[in-house]
Amino acid sequence: MTESAEKLGGHLWYGVDVGGTKIELVACNDALQILHRQRVATPTQDYPAFLDAITSLVTNADAELGRQCDAIGIGLPGVIDRESGLGFSANIPAINGKPVAGDFRAYLQRPTCIGNDLQCFAISEANGGAAAGYPTMIGAILGTGAGGGYCVDGRVVAGFNGLGVEWGHWSVPAALVVKYGLPIHECACGLTGCIECYVSGTGLARLHRHLGGDAADAGGVIAAVQSGDDAARRALEIHLDLLGHALADVIKAFDPHAIVLGGGLSKLESIYRDLPAAIAVHLFRNTKVPPILPPLFGDAGGARGAALLARQHGA
Ligand SMILES: [Zn+2]
After folding, report:
1. Do 207 and 231 touch, CB atoms closer than 8 A?
2. Share of the chain above pLDDT 90, in %
3. What is the model's pLDDT at position 9?
4. pLDDT class for 1, splitting at 50, 70, 90?
5. Dihedral angle at the C-alpha atoms of 226, 231, 232, 238, nearest 10 degrees?
6. Could you tell me if 207 and 243 are in contact, meaning their C-beta atoms sit under 8 angstroms apart?
7. Strand positions, DSSP E, 19-82
């Protein structure tokens, strides 16, 4: 999709959302109108092909729009070491141990800002999304993992290591482990007992299996609840308490004006009804739970969020 050149006054920002199966580029003006969009399959195993795929998307956009952008934001499902520039991603092994930050700069030849997919989700929802107009917000994603991003006045606060906010890798609370007799899991991040192992969509299914169920994923647990499965109903209750505790900790740390949920569990309507009370029992008395909101853009906002990172970086 390419719009007419008269919309190209002012700045031009590219956002690149790198996923495990596709890479999407959007080109935006200052008003976040999408002027151009293109997707290609992600070369997950071949690093030169991965760099070529992103470079081709960028040069194609330049050619379509008749000029270079002011900056590029790239959202990766992983982390880039701030000092070494080396990448790590469980979904895209091609970038593991590779000098991704330096190579992006060398290949793309313009200001480049790298963030993670969680931060791109958050900044997209903070700007024209579900949390538009709130001074601060947390985007909390509950998918195969759990994590998020923190925005102040519409800008991502990524922090010293670029980790903000990996709340999914805070520890599961000991009191609830004892209360529910839960096992302690090794997390894919290398730590032990991370809360994501329990509160992500994957974690909900794991809780169900711990209680004797057999759901393969969160959707399976919800279907089992609807068909009267006691283990599924119990798994959902424990999940709600653990998630309430985790988001109460997020509120104690950041006290955001709004929390926007993302990922597969954000589609669960009952979560918006039940979660505020589940959070409140783990907060101080008289502390107000901020609005818990469904996403406006959701996962589809990744490339838009990356363009916003570029605007934040380049403005
Ligand atoms: Zn972890």
Report:
1. no
2. 86
3. 65
4. very low
5. 130
6. no
7. 22-28, 34-41, 71-76, 79-80
Average pLDDT value over all residues in the chain: 93
Q: Tell me the Ramachandran region of residue 74: left when phi exceeds 0, alpha when psi lies from -120 to 50, beta otherwise.
A: beta
Strand partners, 171: 194
Residues near ion ligand 1 (Cβ under 5 Å): 169, 187, 189, 191, 194
Q: Measured in angstroms, how far is the CA atom of residue 187 from the centroid of ligand 1?
A: 4
Q: What is the pLDDT of residue 8?
A: 54
Report, in angstroms and rounded to the nearest whole number, the Rg of the chain calculated over CA atoms.
Answer: 20
Cα 191 to middle of ligand 1, angstroms: 5
Please give the distance, rounded to the nearest whole angstrom, from the Cα atom of residue 144 to the centre of ligand 1: 12
As a whole number of angstroms, the distance between CA 124 and CA 253 comes to: 22
5-38 residue pLDDT tens: 445 568 999 999 999 899 999 999 999 999 999 9
Give, for 55, the enclosing helix (H) or strand (E). helix 47-65
d(CA 139, CA 262): 7
169: CA distance to ligand 1 center in Å?
Answer: 4
Give the C-alpha separation, 284 to 267, whole Å.
Answer: 29
Domain architecture of the chain: domains with CATH = 5-122+299-314 (3.30.420.40), 133-294 (3.30.420.40)
CA 307 to chain centre: 15
CB atoms closer than 10 angstroms to residue 87: 24
Per the structure block, which two tokens stand in for 128? Answer: 């024209």
Of 236, 226, 298, 239, the closest CA to residue 264 belongs to: 298
Q: What are the structure tokens assigned to 209, written together? A: 């299996």
Give the mean model confidence (pLDDT) for residues 127-145: 96
CA of 54 to the centre of ligand 1 (A): 29
Confidence of residue 83 (pLDDT cuts 50, 70, 90): confident
Residue 161 confidence (pLDDT): 87
